[in-house]
Amino acid sequence: MSEGPRTFQSGGLLRFCALAGWLGALALVLSVIVAPWFVPDYDWISDTISDLGAGRNEWIVDVGLYAYAGGLMVLAVGAAHMHPGGDVGWTAGLLALLVLGLLVTVIGARNEYGDGDSDGVVVHTKLVYGLGLGYTVATFGMASQAGGRMTTVFRVFGALWVLCAPVFFFLPTGIDGLFERWLGVIALGWSSCVAIVLWRQAQRCD
Asked: Whole domain around residue 49: which residue ranges?
């Protein structure tokens, strides 16, 4: 009788997943920086990132969103590969990463934001609620197994997200664009830390 497959972790796969996570976050940052130059009368403080996702040059920020979504899903693959076993929080977190990637993809694909379009099924707000829940589950769920100081870092990001994300819905439109960017810093900062955890695990595999 042949033995089953050996259980091991691939440092190369973990590094690939970490790099994909970083590059996805970087692509979104660059797209948000570049896109306003092609949107007339765009205001970084009062206009949201969603306002960049409509019009002739919507593809710029959409590419960034797709790249970040892909990065999140690849991070989930890496998190699954280094799964510590028996940790429900880590499992919930990596599944949340997958869902977050799908939500960001749909947000980019729907193109129903920023242009006042209300035709058909408008799901943007519901997707945003999903992002709020997904980041909450992922940050806290994966914290205990992040290791060392990263456990604290994950929880700090989670606390910042829980405290700040609901505030966005109550802000005046004159400043909501700036605050949305702050939420983006929290989200991308945390996902970049997930990539750090994967990279460190890859070094241990060596």
From this structure: 11-205
